[in-house]
Request: fold
Amino acid sequence: MMHSVLIVAIVSLVTILLRFLPFAVFNGKRKTPEIVLYLGKVLPYAIMGMLVVYCLKDMTFTAVRNFVPQIIASAVVVLSYVWKRNTLISIAGGTLVYVLLVNFVFL
Reply:
C-alpha cells in the first residue's frame, strides 16, 4: 500500500514540475525562442495525426462490424469539428457515437 502511495506521489510531483517549469523558465522577462513558438504551432496537428493512426491501426475489413463503427465515428469527429470548431465536443461526440454503435448496433 505504501509503495503505491509513493509511486502516485512521485508521479504527481514530476507532473506538476513539468507543468510549471515552462512558466518559470519563460516568465515574460525573456523572449520565447522561435523553436518553442514553432513547436506550439505544429505539434497539435502532429499529435492529432498520430491519434488518428493509433485509433484506426487495428481496423480490419473482414466484417462490417470491424470497420463501419470506426468510419462513422471518425466522420462524426471531423464533421462536428468543422461545424463547431471545438475539439472537446468533436472527440466526445465521436467517442459517444462509437460506443453506442459498438454496443447497440453492431453487436
